[in-house]
Amino acid sequence: MIKIAPSILAADFSNLKSEIQKIEKSACMLHIDVMDGHFVPNISIGVPIINSIRPHSNLIFDTHLMISHPQDYIKVFAKAGCDLISFHVESDCDVAKTIDLIHAVGLKAALALKPATPAKEVFPYLPNLDMVLVMTVEPGFGGQAFMEDMLPKITEIREYANEIKPDLDIQVDGGINLDTAKKVLLAGANVLVAGSFVFQSKDPAREVQQLSNLY
Ligand code: DX5
Ligand code: ZN
After folding, report:
1. What pLDDT score was predicted for residue 199?
2. Buried b / exposed e across 45-54, counting CB within 10 Å, b at 16+?
3. Ligand 1 atom 12, closest CA
4. Which residues have CB under 6 Å of ligand 1?
5. Can you give the pTM of this predicted structure?
6. How far apart are the CA of 139 and the centre of ligand 2, in A?
7. How far apart are the CA of 137 and the centre of ligand 1, in A?
8. How far apart are the first and last CA of the chain?
9. Are 44 and 9 in contact (CB under 8 A)?
């Protein structure tokens, strides 16, 4: 099943509650980009914002940690009401322990890869993962152009997962619109993050619907 995760990084932060309501019925997840100004050259959303929006949405809170030390923050993000936590394989942590920590607090765990990181870096962890996040732009900013050369990486992970973890979700993040969505779905992804395409539209719900209808 194809799942759409609008990224609130592209939403109007002065009206987050009403922005989320626009996609509450059509989306499956809410993608929340957390940046620490160290792992990526930008600072974005943190725990207080997640606390504030949690009571206003029933969507799966899909939290993308672009931070250097994810292991130290799993409990606080769980307490804030996240349902799924993605952290980067390139971050400074014990990857296996961090996955276990996420599961121990009852959440789903995903491992994210920057564009330069080869697929095989996540293979040892696949049996314990719920999802892999393939970045199709350099993490840090919304509104960037989709990197076509990430398509073979998606297929490589899908093929490997089919052998050892067929129910693995593969999420793509960065530059997703109707054209690029078709390509990543064909390549083997099934969870689409879309920031600018959804929230910079006059009708965010329609864009989510159009993405969902692609399959
Ligand atoms: C970038 C973020 C993305 C971003 C995607 O570091 O991880 O989630 O919001 O934005 P678009 O869809 O505009 O590329
Ligand atoms: Zn993201």
Report:
1. 98
2. bbbebbeebe
3. 195
4. 7, 9-10, 31, 33, 64, 137, 139-144, 173-176, 193-197
5. 0.98
6. 7
7. 8
8. 8
9. yes
Three-state SS at 64: strand
Write the pLDDT tens digit of every residue in 109-168.
999 999 999 999 999 999 999 999 999 999 999 999 999 999 999 999 999 999 999 999
CA of 12 to the centre of ligand 1 (A): 14
- The pLDDT, as a whole number, for residue 66 is 99
Q: Please, are residues 141 and 173 in contact by the beta-carbon 8 Å criterion?
A: no
pLDDT at residue number 1: 82
Band (pLDDT 50/70/90 cuts) for residue 215 is confident
Active site residue 33: yes
Q: Of 33, 62, 130, 169, which one is the catalytic site residue?
A: 33
